[in-house]
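Service request form, structural biology core

Requester: graduate student, group of Dr. S.
Request type: structure prediction, single chain
Budget code: on file
Notes: please return the result as structure tokens.

Sequence provided:
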Amino acid sequence: MISTYFLSYSRKDSGLVDEFIKTSQLFNFDLWIDKEEQEYGQKWKNQLYKGILSSNGAILLISSNSLKSDVINNIEIPFIFEQQKNRGDEFKVFIVIIDYVPETLLNNYQSTNGEYIFRDRHIKNVSANKLDSEKQLPSEMMVGARKKYWYSLCGKISEENKSGEEVEKIATIDKELLDNIDLDSDGHITKEEFDAHMNLKKKEIENSLLKSFVEKFLHKNKE
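Core staff response, request fulfilled:
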């Protein structure tokens, strides 16, 4: 099963973002992308929450532009990392800096337990975000070099997508269920509700696997 990742980005970086999206289409993962034509408002906000909930993880394309966005600061970043906390390894987060961001700005972002969100180990290309670095950020690269970078990045994300199919089935929340979830103004569902759904999905898959095994066993003995 192909994983879907919620894409967090600033529309002011659309040139770089469009390049990444185009390259990603060559690999075995999908992107949930906020559509520009959607109207702002609570309905639109709920679509963002549900987009994150229905995804297997998130890709954050970070820049000074993105970190100035109220939507990214107040909705996407908090809810993405809440999902990572609740779902653990089943919700993968990839952080990529696409244009220079001062370290002092990155250090403003902390989780509820006080851990820095944008720690060096969490960012794919953190070494390039240094003023004295010889490495380049995507915004600094020539077109050819940037194409190679996007391809390499998508390859790494694709490798992370090679989890077992059954595990991915458990990790993915049914879109039908999401359409029926009543989210509050913060887009939250309780951890109990989330865990209950995950346990139900696990039982469904276990029953399906058992049924498949029995059918194969009976067919083999029938022969």
